[in-house]
Write a structure and sequence with these properties.
The complex is a heterodimer of chains A (about 650) and B (about 325).
Chain A (H helix, E strand, L loop, with lengths): L7 H21 L21 E6 L14 H10 L4 E8 L2 E5 L7 E4 L5 E6 L22 H12 L8 H4 L6 H11 L11 E3 L4 E6 L6 H4 L10 H6 L4 E2 L2 E2 L13 E7 L3 E6 L18 H4 L12 E6 L4 H9 L4 E4 L1 H7 L8 H5 L3 E6 L2 E7 L10 H10 L2 H8 L5 E2 L23 H10 L14 E6 L4 H15 L4 E6 L2 H10 L4 E8 L6 H4 L20 H11 L5 H17 L2 E6 L1 E6 L23 H11 L5 H23 L1
Helix pairs in contact in A: 1-21, 3-5, 12-14, 18-19
Chain B lengths: L1 H29 L2 H9 L5 H11 L19 H10 L13 H36 L4 H15 L2 H15 L14 H33 L2 H8 L4 H24 L8 H7 L4 H10 L3 H29 L7
Helix pairs in contact in B: 1-4, 1-13, 2-3, 5-8, 5-12, 6-8, 7-8, 8-10, 10-13, 11-12, 12-13
The chains are: A alpha+beta (about 650), B mainly alpha (about 325).
């Protein structure tokens, strides 16, 4: 124990000792930002493999029937397995394959219309080990757990975001929801008629009308099995002096990882589930260019790594710093780091290529556009006017200015990879100013003026609350005003804009778009289906075309086939000609990977795909040491200063 | 003293009520609950989902007066919100549904781990430097140091953070640029840089203020008397000026003590420290008005507490001040 000194000389020595310790402590520190992983080595003595990645915020809810945001999905995906899953490498077209199910469901005709999907769960799949089960051993998954999951979707208190869609198809789900709402609580003892459990592992899912998209819902965690005892155990109450978390913060799944730790506003840690055996690394499906890298992994047990550490970053600068230091295995390339990392020709800079950093561009299955209100007396009935507005908007220039040309300029409502997407299709009313002016004249507004000579004035509603958003709105305004018309920009909050889009109180509005729930053309084309005008759905343009509706209904009930593709092409052409919206972009982004963590899967329908991730830990350690060497000269200078100070202090005290 | 304390507490009640009114007005009138729901539920939310969200949180009640048949007139959003605040039932986060008491409790320690050391180290350093500058007042060193203080004050905190992270964490590689861990001594390595930067970013203003306060004391008659008695400059400074200057310092220092709990929004975000500043920032980003509203309410209570504490300390250290 160190006692405070009394004499001046011992004071100086004491101070010197402390300062020297401080210098040595700093010198002994590293800039590694992570706490110790769960383990350092595996049971076989090989290094414990931890993948380090970034999250922009805390997950909102990890309840599989509720969670809808991408951050939460990123954590749920490796923890809570689904009945079906996407093949990690097949994206054109996307392919579903069994996960918890033995095989893809068998579709049977149902008496009275609709279909029955006959499903069989794999036997011997267990929930992860957790105190909510007897003796902490995970229980086997049965068909009852799927039934319980569907009941939870219908529980009004849970606010499942997919209820509004599924209740239209799954037999009895809407009624169950209404009953729960009326009674103030959902009665879980009532069986859901739409999901009939026929055996320990078998169940029939009944839909009231043809809905081939149902299979995609089985690949989402909303329909994945849930252990009732886990929901009841994690109730957020005090038990034996300890408060248990709520189930929505403590998911119990069958996935390759379990949620080991979640420090709010700091990090989330997933650790491998040692009993995982549901799926293995695919044996085919990657392109020829990745054959050498992926063939050795074919058929291997998953996951390939032991731990995933996701750090929560609210600012982008530290992400870039940690990536440069080798403390992050991958990062999305945002605006801040774009100019530092990329050349003007959109290639990775020499410095990072030499480091072995990989650059990957991925396009989300999403489409963004400006809505034109078809119920507006000026814009709605005048097709030529809408065509003129669309032809006046130079989307490529907009993307060059505001998005470093990263997103794809949208030519049609379907994004790439969706069945029916036409690679060769060009929007007939894409940017062409001369044609736009001619169309405007045909619309009855030559040089932007009506017959009485009055300048046409339109309002453009936008959610412009930041300087960048205002600049975007101004750009769009100027594009339209090239026609000689006047465009009044109305700046709204995001919520107000959404309200206007729902109420139809706008002429032109930004902020419309869709990110695919599942990769089917129905999931985009339904945005223009007349029965989806708000409040029923998201047809914010209020587009109503009987021919479109007829074809849409036919297409929506069909399985993918050449005939269906033809119908999708027709629908795309109808929308392109009628212009109920002005096409903007398919969101894309660049991602960077370190040389020790190459990208294995590139399916945008997956969030992270951690179970397929590979790592070369020894290469990472070597590179980290190389990139983070600590210079000794500052320590030397500091130590020298302290020594001089101490000598000076000692001499002074001796003199006194 | 007790009577004074009780009187001050009673006076605080209307102020707290005023704060509650303003908070309610800001979060439920200026920004409607429907707008909150839309922001939280996102672009894909249907009107039915918005309605369900509002209903489950009781945000679909009338704002001030309930005119619905069969319901009490006072069954309103205003009454329910006031009741919650008065009983310190902070409720749950609008976004995650997590109890707010847990949200705040988990953030207090990380916040205090950076604000308390930064506060005391900064205070002691500023005190020492300002006393020394008073000692060498009007010298070249005093002028240079004063200019340096002005320069330090003029640099925005973000610049200190970015430069500090770049130099210490990225070029010298001594300390982490980001992260936090409560694992014994290794916690210190995560605190060292943010605490150091907080001290540096605040010291310029503090030294200028303390120096001005001490110089004011130096012109007092009792100092002239002390000098006339033949006391050394050191004794005059360390005993008389410091002691009497502390009375003024208390007003500045004690009032800021309660705010140490609230953490530092910028510092915590840039260094990934999961404190209350980080909680508040996340809540604003996610439009979690339950958290923001509770933070505003607790912040105003802390402010009132700080002022009360200052008055009490002021009266305690200066016998000339009476509680009347």
């Amino acid at each position: 124990m160190m006692f405070p000194p009394t004499s001046d000389s011992s004071k100086a020595r004491w101070l010197f000792a402390w300062l020297a310790s401080l210098v040595l402590w700093i010198a002994g520190c590293s800039n590694n930002p992570y706490p110790q992983p769960e383990r350092l080595v595996r049971e076989d003595g090989t290094p414990w493999q931890v993948r380090y990645s970034a999250l922009p915020e805390d997950p909102r809810s990890l309840d599989p029937q509720v969670s809808y945001d991408s951050v939460s999905r990123r954590i749920l995906e490796p923890v809570q397995e689904c009945l079906l899953e996407y093949h990690p490498m097949k994206t054109d077209p996307y392919e579903l394959r069994p996960c918890l199910l033995e095989a893809l469901p068998e579709r049977l005709d149902r008496p009275g219309g609709g279909h029955t999907y006959r499903c069989t769960l794999k036997a011997g799949i267990f929930f992860q080990e957790d105190p909510c089960f007897p003796e902490g051993k995970g229980r086997e998954v049965t068909a009852e757990d799927v039934h319980y999951a569907f009941q939870r979707i219908a529980d009004p208190k849970l606010e499942s975001p997919v209820l509004s869609t599924l209740q239209d198809y799954v037999v009895g789900m809407g009624e169950a929801f209404e009953e729960g709402r009326k009674n103030g609580r959902y009665d879980y003892s009532h069986r859901l008629s739409g999901l009939e459990v026929t055996g320990r592992y078998t169940f029939d899912l009944h839909v009231s009308r043809p809905y081939p998209q149902l299979l995609y819902w089985l690949a989402m965690h909303f329909t994945s099995p849930v252990a009732r005892e886990a929901v009841e155990y994690y109730d957020g109450q005090l038990h034996g002096g300890e408060t248990r978390p709520l189930f929505r913060f403590h998911p119990i799944g069958t996935g390759p990882f379990r949620l080991a730790e979640w420090k709010r506003n700091a990090f989330v840690r997933l650790v491998r589930n040692p009993h995982y055996k549901t799926t293995r690394f695919p044996e085919e499906g990657w392109g020829g260019d990745r054959e050498a890298a992926l063939r050795p992994l074919a058929g291997k047990a998953l996951p390939l790594i032991d731990e995933v550490h996701m750090t929560i970053f609210k600012e982008t600068i530290p992400i870039f710093m940690l990536f440069r230091q080798g403390y992050l295995d991958g990062m999305g390339l945002g605006k801040d780091a774009f100019s530092s990392l990329m050349t003007p020709s959109r290639e990775l800079s020499q410095k990072y290529r030499e480091r072995g950093v990989g650059l990957h561009r991925s396009t989300e299955p999403s489409t963004f556009f400006m809505s034109l209100n078809m119920e507006d007396p000026v814009v709605g009935p005048n097709k030529r006017l809408r065509q003129a507005l669309s032809s006046a908007f130079d989307v490529q220039k907009y993307l060059d200015v505001f998005a470093n040309s990263v997103p794809l300029a949208a030519q049609q409502i379907l994004p790439p990879g969706i069945a029916g997407y036409r690679k060769d299709f060009q929007n007939p009313y894409g940017y062409n100013l001369e044609r736009a002016k001619a169309l405007l004249a045909e619309a009855g507004y030559p040089s932007g003026r009506d017959a009485s000579g009055k300048v046409l004035e339109l309002t453009f509603d936008t959610a412009a609350t930041s300087a960048t958003e205002r600049a975007m709105a101004e750009f769009e305004q100027k594009q339209f005003e090239q026609l000689g018309i006047r465009v009044r920009v109305v700046e709204n909050t995001f919520a107000r804009l959404m309200e206007k889009l729902d109420q139809g109180s706008f002429q032109i509005a930004s902020g419309s778009g869709w990110m695919a729930d599942y990769p089917d053309p129905e999931n985009f084309l339904f945005l223009k289906y007349s029965k989806n005008v708000p409040p029923a759905g998201k047809n914010e343009s209020r587009y109503k075309n009987p021919e479109f509706d007829r074809l849409f209904e036919k297409m929506a009930a069909m399985e993918n086939s050449p005939e269906r593709e033809q119908i999708v092409h027709q629908l795309i052409e109808i929308l392109a000609e009628d212009v109920p919206m002005i096409m903007n972009m398919h969101r894309s982004q660049f991602g960077l990977t370190q040389p020790w963590a190459p990208q294995v899967q590139d399916n945008p329908m997956l969030e992270g795909g951690f179970k397929y991730a590979v790592l070369d830990v020894s290469l990472r350690e070597a590179k980290r040491s190389e990139w983070n060497a600590q210079p000794l000269w500052p320590v030397g200078i500091l130590a020298g200063l302290f020594v001089v100070g101490a000598i000076f202090g000692l001499r002074s005290s001796k003199k006194e | 003293m007790l009577a004074y304390l009780i009187r001050r507490l009673v006076f605080s009640v209307p102020i707290v009520f005023g704060v509650m009114l303003v908070t309610f007005f800001l979060f439920f009138v200026v920004q409607s609950p429907t707008a909150m729901a839309r922001r939280i539920l996102g672009q894909k939310a249907t009107p039915q989902a918005v309605e369900n969200w509002l209903h489950n949180r009781g945000y679909d009640k009338p704002l001030l007066v309930n005119t619905r048949s069969g319901e009490a007139v006072y069954d309103t959003l205003f009454v329910s919100q006031m009741k919650r605040l008065v009983t310190f039932d902070l409720g749950n986060s609008d976004v995650s549904g997590r109890p707010l008491r847990d949200v705040f409790a988990s953030g207090v320690l990380p916040s205090l781990l950076i604000t308390v050391p930064a506060f005391f180290v900064g205070f002691l350093m500023a005190l020492g430097v300002s006393l020394y500058l008073v000692f060498v007042r009007d010298s070249l060193l005093d002028v240079v140091a004063t200019l340096l203080c002005v320069a330090l004050m003029s640099v925005p905190p973000m610049v200190y953070i970015i430069f500090g992270q770049y130099l210490v964490a990225q070029q010298l590689n001594y300390l982490p640029a980001f992260g936090f861990s409560l694992q014994g001594l290794s916690t210190v390595k995560f605190l060292f840089l943010p605490v150091g930067l907080m001290v540096i970013s605040g010291i310029g203003a503090e030294v200028r203020l303390y120096r001005a306060l001490f110089l004011e004391e130096l012109g007092q008659d009792y100092i002239r008397t002390a000098r006339a008695k033949g006391l050394s400059s050191t004794r005059v400074l360390m005993v008389h000026v410091l002691k009497n200057g502390m009375i003024n310092l208390i007003t500045v220092v004690v009032a800021s003590l309660p705010f140490l709990i609230m953490g530092s929004v910028v510092m915590e975000n840039f260094f990934g420290i999961p404190g209350l500043g980080n909680v508040l920032f996340s809540a604003i980003q996610a439009s979690d008005f339950a958290v923001v509203q509770a933070s505003v309410f607790l912040g105003s209570l802390l402010h009132l507490g700080g002022l009360l504490l200052t008055d009490l300390c002021y009266a305690w250290v200066d016998p000339r001040i009476r509680f009347q």
